# Entry
Amino acid sequence: MSPWELGGAVKKPAAEMCLLVFWHLLLEETTRCVRLAHAGVQVDLGGIGKGYALERAAALLMQAGIEHAFLHGGTSSAFSWGHDENGRAWQVAIAHPLTQEVLATVPLNFRGLSVSVADPTRSTNPTIDPRTGIPVRHTLLAAVLLPSPTDSEAWSTALLVLGEEGLSLFQHYYPDGWALLLTSDGRILTPLPPASLSRRT
# Structure
C-alpha cells in the first residue's frame, strides 16, 4: 500500500518523510562510493538509469559499426542515429498521459528523448519533490530532447519536479536543447522549438 493517498493529505509519517532528502546520501570522493546515512534510505535510479543504459548501449553498437538504430528503454526513453527503413530521421510522438492526444513529434537523430510523467491516477511510486517530500502535482509531463540520453533523463525528471520555473534554468544550460511541459491545468509550455520539430498548435 502506498503511503500517499490520491487527492488527499500526505499520510507518510514525519520520520519517514525526512529520509526523502538527498543529504542522507554520503559521497566519498576518494573511493568514489556512496553510503546511506540511515536505515530506511533508498536510492531510486529511475530518474537517470535508463538514459545512461541507452547511452552505453549506443556507444557499443556504434563501435561495432552499426550505422542506423533506434533504441528505447520502454515508453519513456529513446535514442537513435542514422535513419529508418524509408531513409527518414526517426520520429517519436509525445502523447498526453491521460488523453493520448499527440502533443509534439520530434526527430531523434543523435539525440536522446526522455519523458517523465506524474500520473494523478497512480497511487504507487509517485514522483516526489525532494524539497518538500510531497508528490508532484503541478506538472503532468516533462519531455526533454538533448544529445545525451543520460542528460535528457536527468532533466526530464528535474523539470517534472521544478515545473515552469525550471524552463529558464534548462535554457540557460542547454540553449540548443528542447523541452516541453504539460501542466496539471492543461497548459503546454516549451521554449521555441527548432524548425525541424512539429508541435500541436
